[in-house]
Amino acid sequence: METLGGTTARPSLTVAELVDMLRSAIVGGDLVPNQRLVEADLAAEYGASRGNIRAALAELTVEGLVERVQNRGARVRAVSVEEAVEITEVRAALEALCARKAAERITDDEAVELQELAGRMKDAVERGDRDSYSECNQILHARVIDISAQQTAAATIHRLRGQAVRFQFRLARQPGRPAVSLPQHLAIIDAVCAHNPDAAADAMRVHLESVADVIRSTHT
């Protein structure tokens, strides 16, 4: 590793690492809607090259988290309530398909994994640990999509989720919200593990449509 002035130089972050870090900053609210994203400033803050920053911003633009404004550079894209609701409703249709396919394909080992996750979710709600519950929530949706093996749907869901995730991030941390969504998540797990495609699709659709309803009602 090269040294500068007798000190060890830190290796520049990769584009993938920068994408993950910037995405987390946007989702977590450290970078707010309409905030300008100046390449030089970000390069200095993250200790990265401007080329890698530019490439990371381009990737996040594809995901819908960042937008380019003519003659003004990049900024965090602001998603309206109406758009967030529409995105979540589209996700409901796609993830219902994934839940249906997951119920058809799930193995015994994968069923055990989902049941263990259900136990963790129950425990998190009992302890009032919203962060742990939110993490389990993300894992559940990701695993159902993985088990479904629907690659086209998975890629589309990933792009859509990135655009509206800021709303859902706040929603998951509302007091009392985990207790409301827990039965919905357990219904998804039970139906998928029981190899019941119709029930799994219905449970996923009901869950995400309820998320859309809450986004609509709490942001109007």
Brief overview:
The chain has helices spanning 15-27, 39-46, 50-63, 81-105, 108-127, 130-148, 151-172, 177-193, 197-218, and strands spanning 3-4, 7-8, 36-37, 66-69, 73-76.
What this model shows, in words?
The chain folds into 2 domains: 3-76, Arc Repressor Mutant, subunit A (Orthogonal Bundle); 81-218, GntR ligand-binding domain-like (Four Helix Bundle (Hemerythrin (Met), subunit A), Up-down Bundle), CATH 1.20.120. Helix content is 73%, strand content 6%. A hairpin with a 3-residue loop joins strand 4 and strand 5 (73-76). The strands form 2 sheets. It has a 3-stranded antiparallel β-sheet. Strands 1-2 form a two-stranded antiparallel sheet. Helix 1 (15-27) packs across helix 3 (50-63), helix 2 (39-46) crosses helix 3 and helix 6 (130-148) runs parallel beside helix 8. The chain contains 9 helices and 5 strands; from the N terminus they run E-E-H-E-H-H-E-E-H-H-H-H-H-H. It is elongated. The longest helix is centred in the middle third of the chain and has 25 residues, at 81-105. The protein has 220 residues and is mainly α. The protein has helices spanning 15-27, 39-46, 50-63, 81-105, 108-127, 130-148, 151-172, 177-193, 197-218, and strands spanning 3-4, 7-8, 36-37, 66-69, 73-76.
